[in-house]
Amino acid sequence: MAGTLVELTPEQISTFAAAEPAWLVARRLAALGEALELPLPHAKQTPLESAGFVTPDLAQAPRVSVGSLSAGAEVLDLSVAISQGRAEVEKHLGRLFAERESRLHALHLATFSGGVFCRVGRGVELKEPLQVSIELQGGVLYAPHVLVVLEEGARADMVVELRGEPGAEASVRGAVEIVLGANAALNYTEFQRLPGRTQTYWPRRAELGRDAKLQWILADVGARLAVADTRTYLRGTGAEARVLASFFGGRRQHYDFTHIMVHEGQHTTSDIEARGVLQGKARAVYNANSVIRKSAKGASGWQHEHTLMLSEEARADLIPELEISEWEVSAGHAASAGPVDPVQIYYMESRGIAPVEARRLIVAGFLASLLHDIPLDSVRERIADIFQEKVEL
Amino acid sequence: MARPELIIEGLRVGIEGREIVKGLDLTVRGGEVHAVMGPNGTGKSTMASALMGHPSYEVLGGKATLDGQDLLAMSVDERARAGLFLAMQYPAEISGVSNANFMRTALNARRAESDPVPVMQFHRELKAKMESLQIDQSFAERYVNEGFSGGEKKRNEILQMAVLRPRIAVLDEIDSGLDIDAVKLVAGGVSQMLSEDLGVLIITHYQRILNYINPTNVHVMMQGRIVRSGGPELAMELEARGYEWLRQELGIDEPITEEA
Question: Taking the model in full, what pTM does it have?
Answer without folding.
Answer: 0.91
